[in-house]
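Q: I'm building a small set of examples for a reading group on sequence design. Run inverse folding on the following structure and report the sequence directly after it, with nothing in between.
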């Protein structure tokens, strides 16, 4: 998967004919930012008014810009129609057809998940910082933009993401894959059906599911879970530095909901350092589900992670632990050793093929694999 990233904030320029154009500079690179997209891609650029929510209104025409396989960056210019009435605007940039002839809100592909096809994006779009038309500088100066994470071909989850290099403030591949599986009915035909059945049993037994996410970062997976399962009570956890982003994303997702799911009343945000004891607000809960996504990249922190998982399920021996990861180096294998030593057993393993791009096989670019494991205490499977 690759991500639209804004390398320069949106800026406004006056043209010689008296009009206004918006300019920015983007790239398409991986979640780590270590390589750029090496295939041709058509990108839709849309002018948005009243930015900041998923109820944004589109103004003017959609333009198509072409990403060339030889590029590292792409300048984007959008000429604003004089009829645009909104004073505050932003640009949305997402993948389109290769020919650019027909509009697709989220161009996603069916990929293999345990031999069942699950929809996954190959390019994940973004919404720029906001700008007052005619102003030279953007409104937002907090180095954040909205990541547009597809959940269906016509819907996305708006996730505020940091534009800097902070690990906690980004969307990562394993989180996108797990979120796609959570909202896709087809996963009921895979080994992930075990997780769905577990959640249903909890709802039947006590009317709701108590879930906690470790290392929530932007909150993508947890918020996707709470949005999909309205009987889910969720605690998002991370270090203190991530709290503001998590709160912002909780509010952004709530705004986009059309139903009365009361998301903010069902989701709590707690600071949790794996090296420290569980705070009373967390240790007093008997969680049915523990979510761990994109948390194994640093093998030095894995022992503390596993100890935290063990503490969380002490009072809930039947809890299910879901671990999603994209293995980047062999040192991450320590997770499996430590989970085994802590008496956790794998009850299912699903492997999702993350797409490199549209027709990627033609260029010899391999797809990547994201692994989703479900664990239970040994003897409780």
């Amino acid at each position: 998967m690759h991500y639209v990233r804004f390398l320069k904030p949106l800026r406004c320029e006056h043209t010689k004919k008296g009009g206004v154009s918006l300019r920015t500079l983007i790239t398409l690179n991986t979640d780590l930012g270590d390589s750029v997209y090496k295939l041709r891609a058509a990108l839709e650029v849309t002018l948005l008014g009243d930015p900041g929510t998923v109820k944004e209104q589109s103004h003017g025409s959609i333009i198509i810009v072409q990403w060339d396989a030889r590029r590292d960056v792409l300048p984007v210019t959008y000429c604003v129609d004089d009829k645009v009435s909104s004073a505050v605007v932003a640009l949305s940039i997402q993948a389109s057809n290769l020919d650019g002839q027909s509009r697709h809100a989220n161009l996603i592909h069916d990929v293999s998940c345990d031999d069942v096809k699950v929809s996954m994006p190959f390019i994940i779009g973004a919404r720029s910082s906001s700008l007052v038309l005619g102003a030279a500088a953007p409104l937002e100066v907090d180095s954040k933009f909205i990541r547009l994470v597809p959940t269906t071909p016509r819907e996305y989850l708006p996730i505020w993401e940091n534009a800097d290099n902070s690990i906690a403030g980004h969307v990562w591949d394993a989180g996108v894959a797990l979120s796609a599986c959570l909202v896709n009915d087809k996963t009921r035909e895979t080994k992930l059906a075990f997780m769905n059945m577990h959640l249903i049993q909890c709802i039947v037994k006590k009317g709701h599911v108590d879930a906690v996410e470790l290392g929530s970062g932007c909150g993508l997976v947890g918020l996707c879970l709470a949005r999909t399962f309205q009987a889910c009570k969720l605690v998002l956890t991370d270090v203190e530095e991530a709290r503001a982003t998590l709160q912002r994303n909780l509010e952004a997702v709530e705004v986009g909901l059309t139903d009365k799911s009361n998301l903010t009343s069902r989701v709590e945000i707690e600071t949790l350092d794996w090296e420290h004891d569980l705070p009373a607000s967390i240790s007093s809960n008997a969680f049915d589900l523990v979510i761990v996504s994109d948390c194994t990249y640093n093998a030095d922190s894995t022992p503390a992670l596993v100890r935290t998982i063990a503490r969380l399920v002490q009072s809930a021996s039947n809890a299910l632990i879901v671990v999603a990861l994209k293995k980047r180096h062999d040192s991450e294998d320590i997770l499996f050793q430590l989970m085994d030593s802590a008496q956790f057993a794998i009850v299912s393993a699903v492997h999702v093929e993350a797409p490199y791009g549209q027709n990627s096989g033609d260029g010899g670019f391999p797809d990547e694999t994201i692994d989703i494991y479900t664990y239970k205490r040994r003897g409780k499977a």
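The radius of gyration is 21 Å.
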